[in-house]
Specification:
Oligomer: heterotrimer
Chains: A mainly alpha (about 325), B alpha/beta (about 350), C alpha/beta (about 325)
Helix content of chain C: 25-40%
Shape of chain B: globular
Order of helices and strands of chain C: EEEHEEHEHHHEHEHEEHHHHEE
Helix content of chain B: 25-40%
Strand content of chain C: 15-25%
Number of strands of chain C: 12
Number of helices of chain C: 11
Structural class of chain B: alpha/beta
Structural class of chain C: alpha/beta
Strand order of the largest sheet of chain C: 6-7-8-3-9-10-12-11
Amino acid sequence: MLYTAILLAIVSLSIFFIFDLIPVDPARLVCSKQCTPSLVEANRHRLGLDVSVLEQWWRFIIGLFAGRTFGEGNIAIHCPAPALGYSFSRHECVTKIVGEAFPFTLSLALGAFVLWLSVGISLGVLSARKKGKFADRAASVFVLVGTSLPTFISGIMVVLFIVLQFNLVNPLELGNWHSPFTDPLGWLQTFFFPCATLALAYAATYTRFTRSNVIETSGEDFIRTARAKGLSEKVILRKHTLRAALAPIVTIAGLDFAGLLGGAIITEGIFGLNGLGKLSIKAVTQTYDLPIIVATTLIASAFVLIMNLIVDVTYAFIDPRVRTT
Amino acid sequence: MSKFLEVTNLNVTFPTEDGDVHASNEVSYSVGLGETLAIVGESGSGKSVSNLAVMGLHNPVRTKISGTATLNLADGPVELISASPETVRRLRGKAMSMIFQDPMSALHPFFSIGDQIAEAWHLYNNGSKDDGIKKATEMLDLVGIPDPDRRVHDYPHQFSGGMRQRAMIAMALVNNPSLLIADEPTTALDVTVQSQILQLLKDLQREFNMAIILITHDLGVVAEVADRICVMYGGRIVEDGTVEDIFYRPEHPYTLGLLNSVPRIIRGSSHRLRTIPGQPPSLINLPAGCAFEPRCGYAKKVSSGACTAHVPDLSDKGIGHLSRCHLDVVDLSNLVKDKA
Amino acid sequence: MAENILELHNLTKFFPARAGGVFTRAKGEVRAVDGVNLTVARGETVGLVGESGCGKTTVGRTVMKLYEPTSGQILFDGQDITKLSRKEMKPIRSKMQMIFQDPFSSLNPRHTVGSIISSSYTIHGIEPEGGVEDSVRELLSLVGLNPEHINRFPHEFSGGQRQRIGIARALALKPMLIVADEPVSALDVSIQAQVVNLLDDLQKEFGLSYLFVAHDLSIVQHISDRVVVMYLGKVMEMGPTKVLFESPHHPYTKALLSAVPVADPKIGRSRERIILQGDLPSPVNPPSGCVFNTRCWKAQEICRTTVPKTVQITPQQTVACHFPE
C-alpha cells in the first residue's frame, strides 16, 4: 500500500512535469482578446505557473488535504479540501466540476462492467461447454462483431437505429442525470444504451477469454481428480473449473474497469453524458483549461493505481500460491 | 469365487485425425480383495486407458467402449460399462477410487488439502464442515503426515511431492473404497519417497482389505508389491500370471525382453543390456497378426507363419498362467533359458 | 594433456531465494551446490546420483558454464574455466557438450534434424572434412538412425529416436566430455536400454568421457566407472561403482540402494529394507551440521552441529560422515 502511495506521488509529479513541457502557454490561452503582457503575467500568477514545477506540485498536494486559495486580495477564491484546482474559464473549483461529472462516468463504468462481465462470462462458459456446436459458433460470431466494431460506430448505430427508431427513450432525456437510488427508471433510461454499447466491445473479449480458459482448465489433472472423487459435472464446473479459469480475469477486469473510471470519451460524447471523458476532451480541445486537464489526468491515473492494488489483493485471496507469508 | 472386479473383453476405441486408436483390445483381468494386480506396459500399451474406462473417466462422447467390467459389491454385482454414467459416478470415490501420477497437478491449487479431502467425504456422508475437516485430519494422520492438525489447512504447493501423494491417497481412501486403482503413483517421486509410498499402500491394503490395481512400467516396483501381473503390449494383454510366473517363468517374448532390458544392481557385472529392437507399435494401424512380431526374435520358430497371419489367443499354458503367443508349449517353457 | 578431463574444486552455486512481495529482495539462498569436489578422468564415466534438490543437475549445468559458479574452481582439460566470459568459453564449448533429459522439448520443432545437428558446425564456424551434409549423415547412422531422414522434423521421430538426435548433435564437434543430464529418464524401459548401449558403444569408439547425471541407480550402476552420491548440495560418498554398490560406507548411500526396487520378487521381498523417515528438506533451509542428519538413523549430537569432513578411505573412495559404515 505504501508502494501505491509512492507511485501516486511519482505519477502526479510526472504529470506536472509533462504539462510544463507542453509548448502551450495556458496563461495566454485563458487571456481574452485584449491581452497585454501584464495580464498574461497576472494570469500566470493566478494559475500558479510562475513557480517551479516542484513547487506547483507541492502546493497541489497540500491543497488536496487542506484546501487552497487561488489569487490574492479581494479576488481570492478558496476551494475547500480536496482542492483539485480552480477553473478560471468556468469560474468554479475543479473539485466541484469533477464531482458533478463523476457520477456519470461511474454509472457508465459500473453498468458496463456488470453487463460485460455477466454476458461475457456466461457466454464464454456456454461456448466452452458446447464447444464446436451451434451455440459455440453463434457466440464466436458475436465475438467477431464485438471486437471489430469500434464504439464510435456501434454507439452511433445504437442511437440511430434503436433509440431514435423505436423511441425507446425520450431523446431529449438522453443526457440527463437521474439518481439510481431515487429514480432507478430514469437512471436506466439514461444509461442503458451507453452501457450496452460500451459493454459490447468488452463482452466479446471476455467471452473469448473465458472460453479458452475454461477449455484449458477442463483438461487439467485436478479436474480429472475431481471427477474420480465422484463429484457431479455441475459441481466440478462451478466449483473447480470456474474458480481456476476465472482467476486471471480478475486482473484484466480490474484494469479495464479502472481505465473506464477515467472516462469513456467516445461513448459519453455520442450519448451526451457529461462525464469525466467529455469534461477532459472539452478542457483540452475547447478551452485548454489546464487545472481541469491536470485534475482529470491525475484522477484517471489514481484509479488505475488503486485498482492495481485491489486486484493484487483480490488475486492473492483467490490463488493461495501467490500469497507471501 | 468371483473376484471383486472382473473385466472381460474390454475394448476401448477413440477416433483421431489419423484413424481409430484401439487403445484397449479384448482386455480381460480381475482382482480380488486384499490382492494387488499390477498392469505392466510401456507408454502406448493401453494400460491406463482400460482402467480409466472402468472408472468411467473416459471421454463419453468420443470413446467407444464394449465389454464388461463387473464390481461384485456386497449388495449385488454392478456392471459398469452398461450402467448409466450417474450410477458409475456414485461408485467413484465410494466403491472404487483412483490416484494418479503427478500429485502436484492432480490437486486443485486453490483449495486447501483438508477442504479437498473433506469434499470427498461430504459426498457420501452427512456432517458439518467441522466434521469434514476432522475426518480429513484423521486421514492425513493415517497416511503418515506429521502434524496433521496444522497441515490440514495447508495448500498443495506447501506440501512436498511425497506428502502430496500421501494426501491424494488419503483423499482416495476417505470413503473406504474396496478397490484402489493407482496409475503410476510413484513414477514422479524420488526413490526413497517411492519406497515409503509403496510401504504405505501395502499397510493400508492390509488394514482395509482393499483390492489394488497398480499400473506401472517399473518392473522393480512390480516385483516388490504385486501378487499377480498382466503384461500389456499394443493394447492387448500378452501375459497374465502370478508374480513368480512372470519373473521366473515368462512365457512371452515381450515379457522376456522387458526383463532382460532392466539393468539390475545386485548382479554387479558389466555387460551389454539386452534390448528389444525397434519401437512399440502405433495403436491406430495394428497389424493383422501379432503386434509384437516385428520385434520378436522368436517368430521364426513358428513355421506356420501364424505370427503375421492372425493374433494369437490368450491361452492357459499352466494353472492360471496365460500367454498370447503362437510358440508351442515346449518353446515357451524354454523361453526362460534366455533370461539374462 | 591433463590426466583429468574435468576437475571440480569446492564448487558452489547458490541461487537467491526470492520472497515475493512488493519489493523483491533475496531472502536467503538456495544452496544448490555446496562445496563439491570431483574429477572425471579421460575416457571415464562418472555417475552423479541423488534425489530432488541434491544439486546434481545444477552441477552439470555449472560445469557447462550455463550457470556462473558462485565460488570454487572448474578445470577443464587442465585449464581453469571458472571465470571465463561467454566469449572466451566459445572455443572450449566445442570440446564439452551436453545431452538433455527431455527429448520432446530439447529439439527445436521448427528445424529439420539435419539443421539441428549441423548447427554445431555453423555456430563454431567449422567446416568438417567431406562437407557438412555428409558428416551429418554419418552421425545419423552412427547413432542408429536412417541417414535418409536428414530432412525430417523432430515430431516425426519417437522419444528414443529424438534422444539419439540429441546425441548426434553433441557428437558433431568430437567433444572430449559429454555431460548427460538424465538422458534416459523420459524414455520407456526397452528404449532406455538401447540408448544406454549406444552411449557405451560411442564411448569405446571415441574415447569420450561422461559425466552422467541421473536418479536411476540401476542405469548409473550399469554405465559408470565411478559414482558420486549427492544429497542437498553436498557429496556424501564417492567411489568405484562396484565397490560403492556392494559395500556403501555412507548411511544415505545404503538407504538409497535399499530403496531401489529390485526386479526380482524373491530378492526384493526378502532383503533388508531401510525406509527413511520424513521428507527431503528444502535446499533453502538445509539442516545444520551434516545435511543428512534429520533422516539418518545413526545421527548423534555431533551430526547436528558439525559438518563432517570428507575422508579418503581408500585412494579411490571418499565419504563425508561422522560414523561411516
